[in-house]
Amino acid sequence: MQTAKSQITRRKLLDAARKEFARHGIAGARVDRIAAASSVNKQRLYANFTNKEGLFSAVISDAYEDLTRQVPVPDTLEAARRYVGDIFDYHAKDRTLAHLIAWEGLYYGGQDFPDREARAAYYRDKCGTLNEALGRIGLTETAHLVLTLIAIATWPYVAEQQRALLAPEGEGSVSLRETLMRQGRAVVEATVAQAAQPQQSRPTAVESA
Question: DSSP string of the chain?
Answer without folding.
Answer: ---HHHHHHHHHHHHHHHHHHHHHHHHH--HHHHHHHHT--HHHHHHHHSSHHHHHHHHHHHHHHHHHHHSPPP-SHHHHHHHHHHHHHHHHH--HHHHHHHHHHHHHTTS--TTHHHHHHHHHHHHHHHHHHTT---HHHHHHHHHHHHHHHHHHHHSHHHHHHHS-TT-SSS-HHHHHHHHHHHHHHHHHHHHHS-GGGSPPHHHH-
